Amino acid sequence: MDKLQIVGGKPLNGEIAVSGAKNAALPILCAGLLTSGDVELSNVPRLHDVKTILRLLEQTGLKVVQDDENVTLNGANITSLEAPYELVKTMRASILVLGPLLARFGEAKVSLPGGCAIGSRPVDQHIKGLRQMGAEITIEGGYIYAKAKKLKGARILTDMITVTGTENLLMAATLAEGETILENAAREPEVTDLANLLVAMGAKIDGIGTDRLVIQGVNELHGAKHAVISDRIEAATFLCAVAATGGDILLTNTRTDIFDVALDKLREVGLQLEVGTNRGTNTIRARMDARPQAVSFRTTEYPGFPTDMQAQFMAVNTIAAGPSRVTETIFENRFMHVQEMNRLGAAISTEGNTAFIKGVERLVGAQVMATDLRASASLVIAAMAAQGTTLIDRIYHLDRGYDRMEVKLSKVGADIVRIK
Ligand SMILES: CC(=O)N[C@H]1[C@@H](OP(=O)(O)OP(=O)(O)OC[C@H]2O[C@@H](n3ccc(=O)[nH]c3=O)[C@H](O)[C@@H]2O)O[C@H](CO)[C@@H](O)[C@@H]1O
Ligand SMILES: C=C(OP(=O)(O)O)C(=O)O
């Protein structure tokens, strides 16, 4: 199993190109199942999760032609309507094939994803919405069996805001008969990116970017071209890294309009930010030459503070001036990095879903274990800020969602190597 070895205390200086967003690419790749036309995608990140979803999609008969960050999909010859446990268990987002397969082919068999390290993460809202659209759904032997000759438009109000739930129902609704209204829809930029692709494929969707999506079903969708939106979480992770280590970096291929809250918090931390524009994307120059200031926050759905940035900001808080308080409201078990950061000398205690952090003068390198994707990223940040050497085990979590993170960081001065 690969490990990362990091020698801390090196400031970051130079340029980093931000990749396409994992959480946009995954639903967008699944949208290839909705049409027999070519869906030509660019800015697709090189991630383990993308490989997994492409394997799953190829297994259905979807044709995939990949040239680095460009992927063309063709769904003219779908032969299997099944997502097996072996693939779904490694990546929860596999559930995103359910809506498209059912809507276009009237049938799907998809393994239940099961829980994961950060929480139990049920998919009851996906199922509730599809049932409201007339699907007959049974669950047996760990599989969801869904059937519907033709899905029918419905007004669906999910019990909570769910990102992949909204995406699954949105994709299903594009090919349903009549009008579907998704109330309480997730407004994450990645949902908007998917909706924009669907519109380019001929879908009729109003309210994009709001919590009320109104979809008029069409008989079929056609091929389209689309560039996946830039990854706001990857970008903000690098900004936290420079806030923790000091230095001067320039991020390219980013979009600052989609992560205002994180940028505001980073300014509070003391990061000096300058936003520029370059061929339709933004650049962000970030400079840090002082000890970070501690910031408190509470995670919420977009446009609030993203849960996917909670751990990385906590890493900055561990060495910041002053105490801070971090409350996680989206997932019930997303503090597993706390114990590992404490192994590096951090002073964090938790009470329920709130962590209390006392900023310490310094962290010291140690052996730690990555427990989930963003926890891994937070340990990389903490290790880069620590004195001495840190060894991070189980970094396969990191590879799921970051495009060659150690390569990007070592190019800007981090002492970080992958040990095979
Ligand atoms: C691939 C992808 O896009 N992953 C993101 C997506 O995950 P994902 O879409 O899985 O997260 P959701 O928005 O669905 O989950 C939000 C909350 O709702 C609960 N819930 C959700 C659906 C459901 O049917 N029943 C239910 O109880 C979940 O357990 C969780 O507590 O949004 C999360 C919240 O922004 C992010 O952390 C993930 O990075
Ligand atoms: C929790 C995450 O991803 P996933 O939903 O794919 O597990 C994440 O991206 O931080």
Automatic annotation (TrEMBL):
| Pathways per UniProt | Cell wall biogenesis; peptidoglycan biosynthesis
Molecular function (GO) terms for this protein are: UDP-N-acetylglucosamine 1-carboxyvinyltransferase activity
Residues holding phosphoenolpyruvate? K22, N23
Which ranges carry the Enolpyruvate transferase domain?
Answer: 8-408
InterPro entries membership: Enolpyruvate_Tfrase_dom (IPR001986), Enolpyruvate_Tfrase_sf (IPR036968), MurA_subfamily (IPR050068), RNA3'P_cycl/enolpyr_Trfase_a/b (IPR013792), UDP_GlcNAc_COvinyl_MurA (IPR005750)
The source's superkingdom equals Bacteria
| Catalytic site positions | C116 (proton donor)
Q: Where does UDP-N-acetyl-alpha-D-glucosamine bind?
A: R92, R121, P122, V123, D124, Q125, D308, I330
Q: Where in the cell is it found?
A: Cytoplasm
Q: Which SUPFAM superfamilies match?
A: EPT/RTPC-like
Q: Which keywords has UniProt assigned to this entry? A: Cell cycle, Cell division, Cell shape, Cell wall biogenesis/degradation, Cytoplasm, Peptidoglycan synthesis, Pyruvate, Transferase
Enumerate the NCBIfam families for this protein. murA (TIGR01072), PRK09369.1 (NF006873)
* Job description of the protein: Cell wall formation. Adds enolpyruvyl to UDP-N-acetylglucosamine.
Its family remark reads:
Belongs to the EPSP synthase family. MurA subfamily.
Name of this chain's protein: UDP-N-acetylglucosamine 1-carboxyvinyltransferase
